[in-house]
Every structure is written in structure tokens, then in C-alpha cells.
Amino acid sequence: MTIIVALDPPLFVDPYEWIYTRYIQLRDVVEGFKVGLPAIIRLGVEKISTIFRDYNKFLIADLKLADIGDIMSLSIEILATYGFNAVIAHGFVGIEQALDIASKHCKDLGIKLILVVSMSHDGSREFIDKHLDELIDIAKKIESWGVVAPATRPEIIKRIRMRYSSTELKILSPGVGVQGAEPGIALCNGADYEIIGRAITLSSNIRESALRIKEEQSYRVRQCLGSL
Amino acid sequence: MTIIVALDPPLFVDPYEWIYTRYIQLRDVVEGFKVGLPAIIRLGVEKISTIFRDYNKFLIADLKLADIGDIMSLSIEILATYGFNAVIAHGFVGIEQALDIASKHCKDLGIKLILVVSMSHDGSREFIDKHLDELIDIAKKIESWGVVAPATRPEIIKRIRMRYSSTELKILSPGVGVQGAEPGIALCNGADYEIIGRAITLSSNIRESALRIKEEQSYRVRQCLGSL
Question: What are the chain B neighbours of A127 within 8 Å (beta carbons)?
């Protein structure tokens, strides 16, 4: 079970209905859900929480927090109040008076903190990639539960995994499917979860697509482990 | 008229009521409002829009966007739909496939784009400050309406103003009041607006505090222009 489904409802749909139908079809076949900022600002966390009321796997708020500590902490407390159990933040805001405070709040509230250390778009090379090793170290230093690194850039996933084991730092990899990476590739390179959005959520048969992708992941992981 | 009020309702209040009462008391004495991420995720933009329905000055969504272009654009479209006319994003995500797309969407929708180029917390020195000049240039290159730079660090405000005039790039400065900068100091150094939160919103007489701070701004600006 290694799929986390990215929920990003398009503009011209009822976002509540859109998320709800996908949740119902996928909840027993995937490891968790990541709700994007656009859906969160559109619906508000209270309304979103009514969809996931009895869910006990990963429910990640992808806010990509990048603010001073007090503001990130306030957001984290609101997320915890409404049933989220993980949040994504940026490493580049730094530790002092920012991630140190956010990290403490996450621990106190039982929220998993996940740091972005690399992104899939070309602009990631302009600043973020220049600080990759420092960002990975920050993730470890503040005792993040995991990091986000794109499936489309396996060399980065390997680099993180060479520094820290899976028990020390989880790797979550978006970019599988529509963005170009084949299912299982990130796992072969050391990722713990593949975050998959449109390849599942916009397919004509959502549940079938998720099950098929799980099989592709298993096949590729067996292959890279050399058992095929 | 140079005050923009930062609205960040504390956790244990009704955030709708809290924002509404402050809006009513302040709307005719300040230049605009900046609504923070915590309040936006808590209430959702649709509900927030009912407070500001007939407002035509600045209404800034302080999301500190830092994502790939498609996700930032989706957020920007949602903001535009619900009456926001400005949004804050991070320069750190870079231009290609990120800020280039966000900037185009802002222009198409009549939304003012404001980039963070420096922050007030100590962690800003770890990464962001090292790229100050590049971030300022990115703001100009993608034709941002303005940038955010802290009132507590006047040398940075001066540096931005030396590179670009006020007609080229507006400077919005938070950090006035509780965070330590005195009203008017950022204006004296070249800022166009001072963003003021708790010194107004948590005071016992909200409207009085705003009016008093306006007077302090005027006094200090006259002083630094040498007319006192």
C-alpha cells in the first residue's frame, strides 16, 4: 500500500462532491489522501473534515507552509482541530523562529510534518535545488516525519535515501502519471509513497485506475529488486 | 492612507465575527486588509467574501503561495472568484513553470501579485536573504505589482527602493507595532504601505488605535522629509 492520492478538484466542479466521490471509491485501496491548497481555501477545513470523518489513514494538508512560526503554528492547530494528521511545509523559510516552532507544534498535536526539499518544475533549479543538501539536513534536524521529492528526478530520491534511511525520514514522491514518472520508479529509487493525482482522479474508472497502478508499482518493484 | 490591516484571528474566537467587527470599524480609515492563511483555511474564501462584499480597496490573500504554476493559478482563480484583488506569493519557487504562469493568471484576472523577497524572522537569513537581489529582480521580471519586505529591516527596504522606484514596484512592510518597528519608519525608508496587525486588531479600541497610528506615521514622515 504505497499510493497517496492527490485531490485537486478542477475549477468548474462542485469540489465537495468531487472529493467525496473519489474518497468513497478509493479509501480502502490507497494509503492516504493529500488535499491541495486550492480545495482547502475553497471549502475551508471544517467542511472538508466532514468528508473524512471516520478516516484513520494519512490525511495530508498540502499547504506548502512558508511563513513565520506563529502563523504556521496557527494553521497547524486549525488542521489538527479538523482531523488532518499531516502537513506539508517548505524548508526554505529556515529553522529559527519558523520551522523550529512549527515542528514543536506538530509534535505536540500529533501531526506529521513533511518538508519540501525539491520540486518537479523547472523553476526549482533557480533556488531550491541549489540548497538540496541543506534542506534535507533541515528536515532531519527538526525531526520531520518525511520529505517531498519528485518521482521525475530519481537521482534526488537516491541522494536523500543515501543520507537517511526510511525509518529516519520518509520520502513522498509526486509526479507519477500525468507529470511523467511511471508507477513504481520512485519506490525503486527509495521513496516510501508515490503521490498520484490526475492519473487516478481524472480517469473514467477511478477505482480501476488505482488498482491497475498498484499492480504496476508491485511489478516494477519486484523487477528492480531483481526477482523478475 | 498607508495602513493595510493584517487580519489573523486567534484560535479561540469566532473568526468570522472577529474579522467582521474589525472590518466595520476600520474600513474607512485604512487602505486595505490582508487576510492570513489560517483564517482563509478555517473559513474558506466564499464565507470570507460575504464580509467584504462591497469593499473596493485592497483585499490581499496572504497565502504565501509557493507551488508549481498550475496549483498557484488554481488558487488565484478561486481568489478572484471570491472578490480578492491581491495575493502574496514566494519568489523562492522560481520563474519557470511557476511564477511565470501565476503572474500571467494574475494579470488576466486583474489580481495584484505581491512577492515575498525578505522576511522578519531569524530563519530568513538561512536561505531567503542570501538571494535578496535575485528575488527583487524576479519580482520586477515577472511584473509583480509589489514586494513584501519587513519594516524591522530598513536597510532592505532602502536597497529595494534604490533599484526600483515606487511606480515600478510597491513595497509593503509588515512588522510594525508588536514586532518592533515604529509606525512611519518603513515609509521613511521607501515603503509604500505599512502592514499592521495586532497593534490595531488586538487593541481595546481598534478604531482609535488605527487613527493614532496614522498620526504617528504622518508625524514621522514629515520628520524624515525634514519639514519638522
Answer: 92-94, 127, 131, 134
